[in-house]
Amino acid sequence: MSFDISVSGAAAEAVERVVPQLVSDLVASRITDGDPTLWGPDAEEESAKRLGWVQAVVISEPLIDDILALRDKLHAEGINHIVLCGMGGSSLAPEVITRTAGVELTILDSTDPGQILSALNDRLETTAVVVSSKSGSTLETASQRKAYEKAFHDAGIDPLERIVIVTDPDSPLDKDARAAGYRVFNADPNVGGRYSALTAFGLVPSGLAGVDIRALLEEASSISIQLAVDSPSNPALILGAAIAGTTPLKNKVGIVADGTYIVGFGDWVEQLIAESTGKLGTGLLPVVLDTTSPELSENLADVQIVRLVGSARATEHVRDGEIEISGTLGAQMLVWEYAVAVAGRLLAINPFDQPDVESAKVATRALLDSRPAPLAPAFAADGIEVRGSADVVAGQDTIAGVIDALVAQIGPDGYLAIQAYVDSHTLHQLSDLRNLLAAKSGRPVTFGWGPRFLHSTGQFHKGGPAIGAFLQITATAPQDLEIPDSPFSFGYLIQAQAAGDATVLEQHGRPVLTLTLTDATQNLATLFSAVD
Ligand SMILES: O=P(O)(O)OC[C@H]1O[C@H](O)[C@H](O)[C@@H](O)[C@@H]1O
């Protein structure tokens, strides 16, 4: 069996109560048939052009030979290092697919100048770059493309030979890239970014990097008939009911890899859940945990634990109150896509739009256009500059003090989001703050690298229930990097992205604390001791 699920506690109660209704409403077969009326009249127009993922396996099959032929051609030319430039749905699937397969793929989903420089300086002579953007208008991706074009030119390499484009037909990128003479793979425009794992967006970079993408599609195919059937044993109906049907709603979903062979599934499913459901003041907050995370033992009434286990047998030993899942990667991707669509119906929202992502982009764009002088910090301590909401910074003069003040703002049903707009490779230790702050606050804590998370959980933070408190970590970059043909640099862009999102969060009445590391390596110790 390619997929198994076991439920207990409130999730089991939800399955018992909700699934019969889903079956009698023919939800599974209607999703499979592309019925756009399942999410109400307001969602109908969008849903009508967003259900193509149901047929992704069939649609993607013809792409495989072209991808493998290009891989062979690149190999024959000695090109064996693949970089992927893309944000959100254009990079999260290839990340989990290649990590699980143990295949190298350098993913550039950052605007941090140091991180971009490291990628540009890494094996350029033997590198091919996939530039992926469904809309073809994402600023980060366009900037990364320009940086690689310049780097190839400067090295005397023709970018047309080394850059491959994945985008929707007729997008601005599609038109521009075709006119310039780039190799372009088009994806199905009737699939939204976060549902695009099994389309060209997941397959082109993963296939070029060396993954057996045919096997991935076969894994998904093996479960597709089960998902289309209106039956109480349909795993997507069970999962959808278990995560979105509990009463009262457990609106945080703690996802922990505990025995699964899949590496990094939480980071992919995080976007699918958060961006699909976090809107109109409701939604499910995904919280990616590890097996030592405090949330697993705290029995928080509003957190539903989902444990990704190793084998079907492991799901027979489900822990009290948990959901346990096992399965192949391709099958899990398709099951979760169906389940989140089901969750959208249960939560009475449109699972295919992302109305609040745009607000942060607009605020960032305003800063990029006007380029105001940086806001003076409220204070600085031990080389860390402190800015933030008045409730958090007023009366404080230590890093420990402001962090405590932010934690004190988290309500009984709230959560803390750590958002680190830094080089995620050199400052990887920052993610260890998550478990520490979860222990300190006794509440769920999410961790995201900026600007990557803006395209993943960013929608929930602004469109979901207004219960988050936000810790931004930024850094003064030791070196900046110009974006070719742009009035601002990567260093300016990442700061504007943090400041733009902070403005929008504060407009939603949420507390924000921004800590700027002026000497990142030295400041880490201060930060960790302030949290302890
Ligand atoms: O693939 P792109 O069009 O560049 O979009 C990348 C990301 O952009 C936005 O943030 C959307 O909210 C995401 O759903 C999407 O995955």
From TrEMBL:
Gene Ontology MF terms in the entry: carbohydrate derivative binding; glucose-6-phosphate isomerase activity; monosaccharide binding
Against CDD domains, the record matches this protein to:
SIS_PGI_1
Q: Which reaction does it catalyse?
A: alpha-D-glucose 6-phosphate = beta-D-fructose 6-phosphate
Gene3D superfamilies noted in UniProt: Glucose-6-phosphate isomerase like protein, domain 1
PROSITE patterns in the cross-refs: P_GLUCOSE_ISOMERASE_3 (PS51463)
Which keywords, in A-to-Z order, does the entry hold? Answer: Gluconeogenesis, Glycolysis, Isomerase
Where does the source fall among the domains of life?
A: Bacteria
InterPro entries, A to Z: G6P_Isomerase (IPR001672), SIS_dom_sf (IPR046348), SIS_PGI_1 (IPR035476)
Q: Name one GO cellular component term.
A: cytosol
Metabolic or biological pathway, per its Swiss-Prot or TrEMBL entry:
Carbohydrate degradation; glycolysis; D-glyceraldehyde 3-phosphate and glycerone phosphate from D-glucose: step 2/4
Q: A Pfam family name for this chain?
A: PGI
Q: Does the keyword Ribonucleoprotein apply?
A: no
Protein EC: 5.3.1.9
One GO BP: glucose 6-phosphate metabolic process
Q: Which family does it belong to?
A: Belongs to the GPI family.
Record PANTHER family: GLUCOSE-6-PHOSPHATE ISOMERASE
Q: Return the protein name.
A: Glucose-6-phosphate isomerase
